[in-house]
Design brief:
5 helices, single chain, eight-stranded mixed β-sheet, 33% helix, globular, 176 residues, Aminopeptidase, alpha+beta
Length: 176
């Protein structure tokens, strides 16, 4: 199973069926925060829902299409990070993430993304990293800036998040 040590506090582990009960609890405890920026929370509430997500994620990982990992902080599963899309022909990956609210403000997502960027450039021979964040999601946009990413543009009416249409700020970082 794929795993990656980020630092002394954080590691990443490829999603595993054993994560499903913890994901259910995290989704329940952090519902408001997650549903504000992500489409899936209203549709993914049970262990069976998360087992399906994990199964699809592992299938896509085996096919080289994506890589979905749990974020482990001091031995506790606290969120999720992924290469949502690995596009080998464009040599580009798109990063997505979410974190339990009790762990915000500790630099976890920034450190995790730094490690994934390094991994993508050095191990996957990727040339371009992309992160899309809702224009109003100031926390995620700040992560992009801390990572040294450049705002490449805004896509209006990019996503319907549970009945609310949002625009996306698209950030990029090139290997060169």
């Amino acid at each position: 199973m794929f795993s990656l040590k980020v630092d002394e506090q954080i590691s990443l582990a490829l999603v595993h069926p054993s994560f499903a009960p913890r994901y259910v609890q995290l989704a329940k405890d952090n519902y408001e925060q997650l549903a504000k920026w992500l489409v899936w929370p209203p549709h993914c509430k049970t262990e069976q829902d998360f087992q399906g997500f994990i199964s699809r994620s592992l299938h896509d990982y085996a096919d080289g299409k994506s890589m979905v990992c749990g974020i482990i902080f001091n031995g506790e599963l606290v969120g999720n990070v992924s290469f949502n899309n690995i596009n080998r022909s464009l040599k580009k990956v798109e990063i997505g993430y979410w974190l339990a609210k009790d762990f915000n403000g500790k630099g976890i997502i920034t450190r995790v993304c730094e490690k994934l960027i390094e991994y993508a450039f050095e191990q996957l021979d990727i040339d371009k990293i992309e992160i899309c964040a809702a224009t109003e999601n100031t926390a995620s946009r700040a992560v992009c800036l801390r990572l040294g990413m450049t705002l490449e543009g805004v896509i209006t009416h990019a996503e319907n998040i549970n009945g609310r249409i949002v625009s996306h700020a698209v950030y990029g970082l090139s290997k060169t």
